Amino acid sequence: MNISTYTLAAFAGILLTLASCQSTKKTEDAKIATTDTTAVATDTALVATIQANPDYRLQDSISVLFIVSNPTPDTLRFTQYHTPFEGFMSNFLTITDASGAEVPYIGAMTRRIMPPPEETYHTLAPRAQDSVRFALSKGYHFEKPGTYSLLYNSGTISGISQTEATEIVLK
Question: Domain of life here (predicted)?
Fold first, then answer.
């Protein structure tokens, strides 16, 4: 082997070492990002309820009330990320018609900093509630009359769960 072969072999070895270090760093970064995302929703027992009129006209704004309740004896908090408290910045509801077809989401889809910054959190005292009213038609496109089921779907981000869907009828 001559000098250029040794140089080439050494250069290739250095490249392989750097590539494997970068791959390990990406894997570690991915684990950290995953941990940060899932850590948001731990240790909460917050419950969401959606209150709505039973009937609306299709052309109505379909105003509903999103209530977050803390049924525990502890002070708890939740991030407004993926909730109506931040407006339509994500698809935080699953809305289906009687046949199970999902109503299309037409609002914004925003990327956010994870973990959520401190200022995005709402604190709820023991057995307290917080609520926000919003218009479904600003974020979802209802095309036809019928019975619809509304269910909050973003508990893994916000730390809020909803177990019972709310039904509305559009005429």
Answer: Bacteria
